[in-house]
Amino acid sequence: MGLLSDPNRRRALISLLTRLNAPICVVCYMAGVAWFMGLAFEPFTLRTYMSENAMGSTMVEERFPAGERALGTGREFSAHKKKAGGMPVDWLVKTMQSRGLEVFTQRFSRRLPFPDEDKERYMVKGTNVYGILRAPRAPRTEALVLSAPCSPGDDNNQAVGVLLGLAQYFRNQVFWAKDIIFLVNEHDLIGMQAWLEGYHHTNTTGMDWSPLQGRGGSIQAALSLELSSDVVTSLDLVLEGLNGQLPNLDLANLFYAFCQKIGVLCTTQGKLQRNDWDSVSGYSHAVQTMMLMVMKQASGRPWGDHGLFLRYHIEAATIKGINSFRQYKTDATTIGRLLEGMYRKLNNLLERLHQSYFFYLMPSLSHFVSIGYYMPAFGLLALILLLRALDLWIQLATPPPGVLSVLTPLVISHLTGVALYTLPIHFQEIAVEHFPVSETEAVVLTAIAVYTAGLALPHNTHRLLTGRGTENGWKVLKLVAVLYLAVLLGCTALINFSLGFILALTLVPVAAFVTPDLCSATPACTLLFSVFLFQELQEMPVSFLDGWMLYLSVISQGILDHALYGSLVYPLVALLVYPCWLLFWNILFWK
Amino acid sequence: MAAPLTLLLLVAVTVRAALYRSSLADLISERVEVVSPLTAWKRVVEGLALLDLGVSPYSGDVFHETPLIIYLFHFLVDYAEITFMLADVITAVALYLSVKDYNKQVFRKQKYALEADRYPLDCLELIRSPKEMQYIPLKVAMFYLLNPFTILSCVAKSTCGLNNAVIALFVLSTIKGNVLLSAIFLSLATYQSIYPLTLCAAALLYLLQRQYIPVNLRRFSFWWFVAQYAFMYLGSLFVIVGLSFFLLGSWDFLPSVYGFILSVPDLTPNIGLFWYFFAEMFEHFRLFFLCVFQINVFFYTVPLSIKLKEHPVFLIFMQLAVISIFKSYPTVGDIAASFIKHHKASSASSLNIFLVSCVLLACSALFPVLWHLWIYAGSANSNFYYAITLLFNVAQILLVSDYFYAFLRREHHLSHGLYLKRKDGSEATLVLK
């Protein structure tokens, strides 16, 4: 430790830190943002490549012939769905059985904590139907899953048709070494959660489901198919799962490799890759793709039915068929061949996908940025907090006058956080009685009310604070708050990098430069801004009023996701980020 | 000072009792950072069950604590929570009394040295006054009791708490000058985990100092005292081992307890340094590296004793810290015991200590995160977790060396003056080489 124990060098270092603290912080922030933006620049990214040897070298000719028949089955499914007014369980069971699968059903029901206005449901009851194709040659220890959601209306009929077509085709092949489970789930994510919980004998979300009568082995990989038209122009790959978890990059590589082989246009985030990376518009296209992925990952919700598999250590992705205005169209037979090829490669796996990266960002489907390249951007932002903490420690010189004086704001902030977490759902009945609002609006408005009430606290808790009026009092509080924020953001960035980075981007400048009297932004503003940015990136910009409604629905969806699937964003923000930020708010109003 | 201490004890007991009744207790007792294969309560319960069935508790590779513990809990298993809370209370009270007594001795020595004019005139600000040291014993007790590591260790019912209590009683009896009790408690601590053996040297140095026997290898009185202490220590150790043999009826606790500690067969990840290395190692070299790692704990005794022979109490705390870093199955309870330092850090090194404490805090927060990412999400692997373990241990080592440096610096200033001058009168600075 020569640098820190040699008094001369130490004194020089300390004086440098205290003199230039603010400029160094600003430089670090700019550097962090610039690094992040530079990640999308193509020379700084790596081309994707297959890491898993077992999926490398098969020379297979895909021969799936029955695309038209699959579409016909899809139309039958649609007719029966309309007749049954939901999932046509009997027809599906009969069809799957006629294709030679072992068919089972699972019933589930769930009462949401408050009505979901986006999907218009409150009391959800449904049935999942799944058929197992037993592996003819191997012991039945592993399984693969192909799923298609049963959506209300005209959506995803073709997906179920292709699923059944593939089932019939696969039944005639003799080389399958893993059981293949063909799953049609009702009520998308809720049904999928019920099925996964039943399969793995866990019950983390309090749902009611009937036990699964039939089971395959441990699931190695899963694909979810969403196809709503007879022909598609491109296939979109959705990777983001619950809590920002991503599948192994090899799954994306597999999809890309097959799209190249068969000649289908493939996209990610709905954006087609461009070749002109050195032009401004090409670069901004890549940045938009990457920012879309960051925003989707930060939201912590699963963006396809595959999102819930990841929690069980099963690599999964969703393939969406997109029909836009292009000349070259792909028909169902080609899609079937693509899926056949992917499943044959997955069939060769000897162990779970683990060779490639689990933490990455994709500015396009053929390029990726791994954790070693994107973490320094976050590290630079966290460095600002550390520099600030060091500066405060040196200024305070003597040991902190009383860590107890910090205790009161800490306790009050955390109690407010607990209130923000528990009150909205518990008080919705009382709110509905007294105010002319629906339950969903009641929950969201209660959350906003508690949030705003927390903002008013510092004015009133001054009387309880010891050490008020002292110059050093707020510095001690700021030191504790800055360290708390640094540790919190670090842990968040490890679990969900995008969430950690976005929070850091907005909270770190506030935290570093807050003193009594300087104005600050709030996490609520972060969320509002992110909603508008997300809509812009998707090229569907919204007016302010629409944006505000979207913002309210985002809050309610966040609370619902936590109750239904165990998403961590809402508890994290309510119980940890919000109290931490309230400490800074306290400093702002320190008298 | 009894009132604040009692209040502190009440608060500590309330916090622990509240946590026992909550749902967190089960969660905490499964965390690998808090319990190890040596100290886990689940294994004690297994051992008790085997004992009730009439089978030796050491059959199967489950139970690795000493026989006296299992017989203690044979009678106290219904009051286990109270036992562990009592152990923490005893530790805190023992530390409180020992620090108070030690402070008295320090003041007495300071008074004599001031009267004998042994301190240079400009370092009077370094002399400790009774007023500033008045709250140190309470602070030490508070630091131990309200330390999150200690609370976690107590709520998980890890037998490390009992080990800490015995070591605290050893420290108390040594400082009070009671040779017999010191030897007995040290042998109890050694009996439970081998590593407190290194505290023998520190205890000997202190007791010799207290009895005014100079540490001179040629004098008979020195060897006579060493022989007495060794006889008491080894004698009580043999008595305890023999008692275990008679209670248990066989010798199979020796390989299960001591063999387990020394040969490290269980490689469950913990916050120590052993598991990753030995998981990667070839069988051929295992014995060699085992010896190297184990010698590391005992090795620092000799140089530290030579350097710190005037300050044996500080030596005890240094040794405790070294043991908790390098032992084969450390847990956060050991770390808590090693953090007991009752010296006020001088301002020169407070920046170092602040940085290192920040690193320790960040690492403690990152342990559960990376464990989750490795075991549950499957996105990370053991390298991530071991990186944090390494960082944690490095931070601890830096903390220990910073305290050591601050201590040495203070001693140097006390004997050579605060503002150092070279021979020609220009200002000099103190550099650690």
**Amino-to-carboxy terminus distance of chain B:** 42 Å
Mean pLDDT of chain B: 86
Low-confidence regions of chain B: none
- Alpha carbon gap, first and last residue of chain A: 41 Å
Shape of chain A: globular
Main sheet: strands, sense, barrel of chain B? none
Structural class of chain A: alpha/beta
**Number of DSSP strand runs of chain A:** 12
The largest sheet of chain A, given as strand count, sense and whether it forms a barrel, is:
9 strands, mixed
Instruction: Please give the count of helices of chain B.
Output: 19
Shape field of chain B = globular
Task: Quickly describe the structure.
The complex is a heterodimer of chains A (591) and B (433). Chain A is of the alpha/beta class. Chain A has helices at residues 2-5, 7-19, 21-38, 67-84, 89-98, 157-171, 188-200, 249-262, 280-299, 332-347, 371-396, 404-426, 428-434, 439-461, 471-495, 497-513, 523-537, 544-565, 569-588, and strands spanning 46-47, 102-116, 121-133, 142-150, 179-186, 208-209, 218-226, 234-238, 266-268, 315-322, 360-364, 367-370.
What does this structure look like?
The complex is a heterodimer of chains A (about 600) and B (about 425). Chain A is of the alpha/beta class and about 600 residues long. Helix content of chain A is about 55%, strand content about 15%. In chain A, a hairpin with a 4-residue loop joins strand 2 and strand 3 (about 120-135). The two termini of chain A are about 40 Å apart. The model of chain A has no long low-confidence stretch (mean pLDDT about 85). In chain B, helix 5 (about 80-115) runs antiparallel to helix 6 (about 135-145) and helix 9 packs across helix 11. By secondary structure, chain B is mostly helical. The interface of A and B includes residues 7, 245, 310, 483 and 486 of A.
